[in-house]
Specification:
Main location: membrane
Distance between the termini: 58 Å
CATH topology of the largest domain: Leucine-rich repeat, LRR (right-handed beta-alpha superhelix)
Pfam families: LRR_1, LRR_8, LRRNT_2, Pkinase
CATH class of the largest domain: Alpha Beta
CATH architecture of the largest domain: Alpha-Beta Horseshoe
Shape: globular
Mean pLDDT: 80
Largest sheet: 7 strands, mixed
Number of strands: 24
Helix content: 25-40%
InterPro entries: At_inactive_RLKs, Leu-rich_rpt, Leu-rich_rpt_typical-subtyp, LRR_N_plant-typ, Prot_kinase_dom, Protein_kinase_ATP_BS
CATH superfamily of the largest domain: Ribonuclease Inhibitor
Number of helices: 15
Structural class: alpha/beta
Number of domains: 3
Strand order of the largest sheet: 1-2-4-6-8-10-12
Subcellular location: Membrane
Strand content: 15-25%
Organism: Arabidopsis suecica
Length: 588
């Protein structure tokens, strides 16, 4: 009996090895048709670990992903090569110079879920064999030379979520594609005629622009001569204007009162708390310390007499936007729950003030007295990542963040955090990374604010750490955060960028078996079920561009950052390189 089982195991190993060898032979046959200097595939090197763009399954016995964008391939896609990878799920050959028809033997790729062939020179009619790929979720054939009609047989792709056929030469009428899971379609810039089928009328008109389509039927008019949609939009806009006007009056009337009321805590007979430069005299109430060697010309009275509004209240204090008489704008943060003395406070401010980087919010000055501890920062007019991601969701006037903007935000924030971790001889930490502490500069790159405050403030309650969704599981005292817990928090921000979901609200609303589940845990569970596409923000998926491949890469980076064991998390320098490499191949 033991010999029998041993023989079975040996047979299984031989079959697996032979299958992997067959996959390797198929790829080598594919590569032999081209002369590409960017790939260094070697038959003697490990296939699953050393071959650029190739990914194997967990068992390491089959190839499941081939990603070869912009590597210089040209000519026909060689038949009976790629199609021999029977376990292939993900294929990207975008941004090459492939010509001719799509090989008919692609029908053998029964397990394929993602097919990216955009930005090539493929031509001819769309082959009917595509409808045989029943597991296909993403099909991007944009920016090619395909012609003929769009086959009705595509309705058979019942798992399809994204269909991009833009910038080709398709003609005829758009078939009535009954695709229940379709969340994004782009048929723009073809030669299509007729009307938009009822099944596709839920998508934005931009998805069909650049064709010769006739207009949809006009909507029924209201008694005022307006369409129902226009009437409702006008009514909604009027309501919003009323609310906004009332809010503006409240801010204008009470904004300055609130900041002056918070800061003035002295008797009228006491001298005012003057803010002087580093070389100035120290008053009884404390002094303001400026950074950067500049001689600032405002003091506390200037701030209190300027127009101010409350930007927000957080665990570390209240933040005000202050518009000075010289038209400049700064942010003043009044710190609460400071648990260190003057000396330690000033030492920490000095370390923060010396952390200068374009992706780190600049600490301009600080102020310490018995009653008030203040930090003065640069002001970012584009607001925070939290506001851009979650503000006005579901409102018709909201301008969503596209994928390019989110990638720039992630890149900038990673650069900023890498600089922070270099401070204090490589031991500096942030301690409170979240989307409301990441601001957007003029080019939409992320800039990290509120750095280094966690170590001088009272530790946040354990319940706050658990429900915020940002803190690493090992952190029980926020004053004892580490660089690895910073990486965890940054990973949550990456997941927030990808999903559009707030970690705090996710922790409250998503439960499994009666227990709360934070954003990171929810994404792990979804990805484990191979429902990766379900996690992405619909605001990104509804925009054209075909960036899901890059989003999947960012998702893997985010999941690595939120590893439950801190020793398994990458350093932020490694994270930064991975993010910057997402588009490396395309820019070579």
């Amino acid at each position: 009996m033991q010999i029998f089982f041993f023989s079975l195991v040996l047979c299984f190993v031989l079959i697996s090895s032979q299958t992997l060898e067959e996959d390797k032979k198929a790829l080598l046959d594919f590569l032999s048709s081209f002369n590409s200097s960017r790939l260094h595939w070697n038959q003697s090197s490990p296939l699953c670990h050393r071959w650029t763009g190739v990914t194997c399954n967990e068992n390491g016995d089959r190839i499941v992903s081939v990603r070869l964008p912009a590597v210089g391939f040209n000519g026909l896609i060689p038949p009976f090569t790629i199609s021999r990878l029977s376990s292939l799920k993900f294929l990207s050959l975008r941004k090459n110079q492939f010509t001719g028809d799509l090989p008919s033997d692609f029908r053998n790729l029964k397990n394929l879920t993602h097919l990216y062939l955009q930005h090539n020179r493929l031509s001819g009619p769309l082959p009917v064999i595509l409808s045989e790929l029943k597991n296909l979720k993403v099909l991007d054939l944009s920016n090619n030379g395909f012609n003929g009609s769009i086959p009705k047989s595509l309705s058979g792709l019942t798992s399809l979520r994204i269909l991009n056929l833009a910038n080709n030469s398709f003609s005829g009428e758009i078939p009535d594609l009954d695709l229940p899971k379709l969340s994004q379609i782009n048929l723009s810039n073809n030669k299509l005629i007729g009307t938009i089928p009822k099944s596709l009328q839920r998508f934005q008109s931009s998805a069909f622009s650049g064709n010769k389509l006739t207009e949809r039927k006009k909507q029924r008019k209201t008694p005022f001569g307006l369409s129902q949609l226009a009437f409702l939009l006008i009514l909604a806009a009027a309501c919003i204007l009323c609310v906004s006007g009332f809010s503006f009056i409240m801010i204008t009337c009470f904004g300055k009162t609130r900041i002056s009321g918070k800061l003035r805590k002295r008797d009228s007979s006491s001298p005012p708390g003057n803010w002087t430069s580093r070389d100035g005299n120290t008053e009884e109430g404390g002094k303001i310390i400026f950074f950067g060697g500049r001689n600032h010309l405002f003091d506390l009275d200037d701030l209190l007499s300027s127009s101010a509004e409350v930007l927000g209240k957080g665990a570390f204090g209240t933040t005000y936007k202050v518009s000075m008489e010289d038209m400049s704008t700064v942010v003043v943060k009044r710190l609460k729950e400071v648990v260190v003395g003057r000396r330690e406070f000033e030492q920490q401010m000095e370390v923060i003030g010396m952390t200068r980087h374009e992706n780190v919010a600049e600490l301009k000055a600080y102020y310490y007295s018995k009653d008030d501890k203040l930090a003065v920062y640069s002001y970012y007019s584009h607001g925070s990542l939290f506001e851009m991601l979650h503000g006005n969701r579901g409102k018709y006037h909201r301008v969503p963040l596209d994928w390019d903007a989110r990638l720039r935000i992630a890149t900038g924030a990673a650069r900023g955090l890498a600089k922070i971790h270099e401070g204090n001889n490589g031991k500096f930490i942030h301690g409170n990374i979240k989307s409301s502490n990441i601001f957007l500069d003029s080019q939409c790159y992320g800039c990290i604010g509120d750095i280094g405050l966690a170590t001088i403030m009272r530790s946040l309650p354990q319940t706050t750490c658990l429900t915020s969704g940002y803190h690493a599981p090992e952190i029980t005292d926020t004053r004892r955060s580490t660089q690895f817990s910073d990486v965890y928090s940054f990973g949550v921000v990456l997941l927030e960028l990808l999903t559009g979901k707030s970690p705090a609200s996710q922790a409250d609303s998503v439960t499994t078996e009666g227990e709360n589940m934070d954003l990171a845990s929810w994404i792990r569970s979804v990805v484990a079920k191979e429902w990766t596409g379900e996690v992405f923000d619909m605001e990104i998926l509804s925009q054209s561009g075909g960036f899901e491949e890059e989003m999947v890469e960012m998702l893997q980076i985010g999941l690595a950052c939120v590893a439950l064991k801190q020793q398994e998390r990458p350093h932020i320098a490694q994270v930064l390189k991975l993010i910057e490499d997402i588009r490396t191949i395309d820019t070579e």
